[in-house]
Amino acid sequence: MSTIAIPTIAILTLGATTFEASLLFFFEMLPFILFTLPAGVWVDRLRRRPILIAGDLGRAIALATIPIAYALGGLTVVQLYVVAFVTGVLTVFFDVADQSYLPALLDADQLVEGNAKLQISQSAAQITGQGLGGAIIGLVTAPFAVVVDALSFVASAALIFAVRKPENPPEARHEAGATDRRSMRSEIAEGLRYVLGHRYLRNIAACTGLSNLFSSLVFAVFFVYAFRVLGLSPLTLGIVFGIGNIGFLIGAFAAGRLPRLIGVGHTIVLSSLLSGLSVLPIAIAPASERSIPFLIVSQLGAGFTQVVYNVNQVSLRQAITPERIQGRMNATMRFIVWGTMPIGTILGGVLGTVAGLHETIWIGAIGGLFAFVPPLLSPVWGLREIPTGAEGSDLGGAVAGAGLPPAAIASIEAEADADEDRNGEESA
């Protein structure tokens, strides 16, 4: 619901400019650059369920400040930036813990099905949430639509609290790694070596990072473009998202079936290619309410392909990574693939101001077409099934850092050793 409500508040209630609106998404994504790598270390050091619960409750409190400030007549764009940043930090910890927690609940051969079922519930939330958000904004005001979203985070925390299957304690994961507790920097370096040295993970990271860079460039200006150029209302936009998000639901049901037909590698590459194509209908849409069918087609295509892509690449990542490094692997992937989004939002805001909104959308649409190239030109393309266990974790000598230039590995390790010698207490 906040996906529509908060940009609506900034643009229509507070009169934000194109660049000011893009900064809203910038501050929301900035924590993925600043905090994702340390978050991976803490997720591997701590139990993951309490991190998930704390992340939900913290986001509920942050969102609740918006309607309170609005009711008191003190809501500003700066507060929206602060809320976006705080919720972004909490989302960093939640997402890293979330993707690291699932392998503790399921066996490796259940991960694709498990991720697909999670996507089904997420898709249902997006279909109802964004449509309902637009309706509530139309009936009352956008700030009070955020109240419902805040309550949803409280409900989420309660549901996670109800999970009763125990996860391995951090000490057990630590012992499995057969290593002493090291400095945070050295543990971050291990996660970087694992991802960048793995012939599957580094190409998936490049693909997702490029896709997110150009999609965030489009998203940075999309709401301004929809409200001020296409002339759409929040209610209409909510309906468009609600209908278009059916693509997420269809994709969730298809995500586990497509790899059995064409192989997991082909599924990852082709879904990435089609995801890039799904932005083009926005660029070619006429500047009027006749744009609605184009936006729905775009959302349907994006929803379907993104879910198929994410279910399969996330399941692959989870299956081939040892439990002790799940948090750092997911954090490193998040750092790379979500770290491009603040860059995209700033570029979108600048281009939207200087070159124009429609021109910016065309740039993002064209750039996103090339995201599928890294996995296409890598061993990912030929992957028929998801490797599991030691077979997967040893591919490409990832743990040893194969694939990285020796100088880069030496630099990372030297920094880690120096940090450990210099200040062991600081890392603790």
How would you describe this structure to a colleague?
It is built from 24 helices and no strands. With 428 residues, it is mainly α. The chain has a single domain, classed as Up-down Bundle (Growth Hormone, Chain: A), CATH 1.20.1250.20. Helix 13 (246-254) packs parallel to helix 17. Residues 175-179 and 395-428 have low confidence and may be disordered.
Layout of helices and strands, plus pairs?
Elements: H1 2-13, H2 18-29, H3 31-34, H4 36-45, H5 48-71, H6 77-105, H7 111-139, H8 142-161, H9 170-176, H10 184-196, H11 201-229, H12 234-244, H13 246-254, H14 258-262, H15 264-277, H16 280-284, H17 292-320, H18 326-337, H19 340-354, H20 357-367, H21 373-376, H22 389-393, H23 406-422, H24 424-427
Structural class: mainly alpha
In one word, what is the shape? globular
Query: What share of the residues does DSSP label as strand, in percent?
Result: under 5%
Number of strands: 0
CATH classification class:
Mainly Alpha
Query: What is the CATH T-level topology?
Result: Growth Hormone, Chain: A
Straight-line N-to-C gap: 38 Å
Return the CATH architecture: Up-down Bundle
Number of helices: 24
Describe, in short, the structure shown.
With 428 residues, the protein is mostly helical. The protein has a single domain (2-166, 180-422), classed as Growth Hormone, Chain: A (Up-down Bundle), CATH 1.20.1250.20. It has 24 helices and no strands.
